[in-house]
Amino acid sequence: MLSTNLTSATAPSNPGEKRFLEVKDSKTGKIIKINVEEGNAIRSVAFEQLDLVCLDPGFMNTAISRSSISYIDGEKGILRYRGYDIEELAEKSSFLEVAFLLINGELPDRNQLNLWEERVTKHSYLHENMVTLLKQFRYDAHPMGMVISSIAAMGTFYEDANPSLQGSDLFLKGADKDCVKVDSLRFKQIYRILGKLPTIAASAYRHRIGKPYNNPVNNLNYTGNFLYMLDRLSEVNYHPNPVLARALEKLWIIHAEHEMNCSTAAMRHLSSSRVDPYTSIAGASGALYGPLHGGACEAVLHMLEEIGTKENIPKFIEEVKQRKKKLMGFGHRIYRSYDPRAKIVKKVADEVFQVLGKEPMIEIAVELEQIALNDPYFKERKLYPNVDFYTGLVYKCLGFPADYYPVLFLIPRCAGWLAHWIESLEDPEVKIFRPKQVYTGIDHRKYVPLNHRKPAQANNADALRSFISPMSKRRSND
Ligand code: ACO
Predict the structure, then answer these.
(1) For ligand 1, atom 6: residue with the closest CA
(2) Contact indicator for 327, 384 with CB cutoff of 8 Å
(3) CB of 171 closer than 8 Å to CB of 185
(4) Which residue from 143, 201, 305, 309 has the least number of CB within 10 angstroms?
(5) Mean pLDDT of 252-260
(6) What is the pLDDT of residues 436-448, one digit of tens each?
(7) Ligand 1 geometric centre to CA of 327 (Å)
(8) Contacts of 227 (CB under 8 A, 6+ apart)
(9) Which GO BP terms apply (predicted)?
């Protein structure tokens, strides 16, 4: 057993006194002192002195870095980007302004914003080979697969941005390096990614509906141009509805960043190997796609469709409590009270409904939320709606197919990922991510040649066969 004394814990007797843990290993009697650093952090590596490893599946209590990009208070339901409340940013800022804030740490002044918008906008055209690549996907390919592959492929167009070709410290600053050059190179990739991603995403959408891809235009803002690329048919001067473009922009602002979640951690993980940012973003996008993360929005819609009517809600809630089902769009690792983004989405929903009419499934969602919020099962576990609970309904009302929702999450989240990329490049403590494992396998055994082996004792022996398609059966000579 380990015993731990927290010395000068919450209220140090002497304010100048350093806080530390004193940990005693009952097996060896060895005592170690671990300093408590800024942010109530202790170094796991200290336990190596006791020959111990910290086991933390799911990173329940492990910080992988220090970060000054966004702040969440899960108990109070607060989310801030660089110190600014998310509610104020959603109301008053544009998406590109927020992207500037996240990546550079401060809100831009007018000139900086103009330059930023101009640079991003001028990087929105796709190379024709990228267009050809997109066109090769099956007519019904999932748009996330198309977008993720295209982001990875983007890296192949920019030799100058590939540390594997140019040197592993390509994006790092150092005594012998021209820092302005390094910053310019970093910004070039940021402009390319922020600029081209909406074009790739819009092309994936057009591919799905069998329409020719639209080129971007420079006279609309970020979301306006995106809606233009989605929706322009033969109009010479098509203009998307400004209320809808602004509604989408608000959703993108609140989706731009959310500290060290699954996909951002993936972004940091991949970047720690110093791979190019396109590959890192493709990897982070893969993490985002999962139904427990950015894919939840799509899953919420399927859940509401399955529930079908208000009358079926109590039965569904019972099934959730019996753990047969999951209430998608509810619960969060960090928020233990209402997710502040969910409140903003509810307001945006009203703005969109005023233009396009109410999405009928909202009635089921509101009722489901009320029943869950008043049920002891959800109260005890502090389960509240998260950002995905209502977002899917807004996207449905806006006419997006459900499998496109994760793409609408991915586009804005790139701003946050890029901010983390820059922050990790500037962090002198960053090392390649290499977690440990606690090995539970066989210690050592002798190799048996193939002809002398007995059949492997596998629980899944039947599944090894996988399933055989009717076509394979037809072709089989057995
Ligand atoms: N429905 C029913 N029960 C739930 C739900 C839910 N949505 N979420 C958590 N619980 C229960 C768990 O069963 C568990 O109960 P127990 O203590 O009796 O075993 C308890 O609440 C704690 O849940 P955990 O799974 O331990 O919480 P964790 O922090 O690991 O998971 C997560 C968080 C993945 C978001 C989870 O709440 C979930 O799966 N929610 C549904 C998917 C979803 O909406 N994801 C989007 C998150 S927001 C985003 O990524 C943008």
Answers:
(1) 327
(2) no
(3) yes
(4) 309
(5) 97
(6) 999 999 999 999 9
(7) 8
(8) 240, 241, 244, 245, 248
(9) monocarboxylic acid metabolic process; tricarboxylic acid cycle
Residue 478 pLDDT level (bands cut at 50, 70, 90): low
Could you confirm whether 239 is annotated as catalytic? no
Cα-flanking dihedrals φ and ψ of residue 369, to 5°?
Answer: -60, -50
Residue 118 has pLDDT above 70, yes or no: yes
Task: Name, in order, each residue with C-beta under 8 angstroms of 191's C-beta and a sequence gap of 6 or more.
Answer: 119, 120, 122, 123
1, 54, 56, 440 from 437: Cα distances, Å? 21, 9, 10, 9
Residue of 123, 255, 258, 332 marked active site: 332
The amino acid occupying position 3 is: S
- pLDDT at residue 11 in the model: 44
Ligand 1 centroid vs 391 CA: distance in angstroms?
Answer: 18
Closest Cα to atom 3 of ligand 1: 326
For the chain, state the CA radius of gyration. 26
Residue 341 alpha carbon to ligand 1 centre in Å: 17
Is 307 within 8 Å of 313 (Cβ atoms)? yes
Contact 314, 198 (CB under 8 A): no
Atom of ligand 1 at shortest range from CA of 293:
50
- Two structure tokens written together for 199: 């074009």
Q: Which of 310, 351, 306 is nearest to 324 (CA)?
A: 306
**What's the 376 CA to ligand 1 centre distance in angstroms?**
15
Q: What is the DSSP string of 353-403?
A: HHHH---THHHHHHHHHHHHHTSHHHHHTT--B-HHHHHHHHHHHTT--GG
407, two tokens: 């793409």
Is 202 in contact with 230 (CB distance < 8 Å)?
A: yes
The SS3 of residue 79 is strand
Residue 427 appears among annotated catalytic residues = no
Q: Is 257 in the pocket of ligand 1 (CB under 6 A)?
A: no
Domain 70-265 homologous superfamily, CATH:
Citrate Synthase, domain 1 (1.10.580.10)
Nearest Cα to Cα of residue 313 among 360, 363, 367, 359: 367
pLDDT at 456 over 50: yes
> 366: burial class by Cβ within 10 Å (0-12, 13-18, 19+)?
middle
Kindly report, residue by residue over 193-209, the tens digit of the pLDDT.
999 999 999 999 999 99
| The two three-digit tokens of residue 290, written as one number | 């999962």
pLDDT score at 15: 64
Domain ranges in the chain are: 2-50, 70-265
pLDDT digits (tens, 9 = 90+) for 301-314: 999 999 999 999 99
pLDDT of residue 299: 86
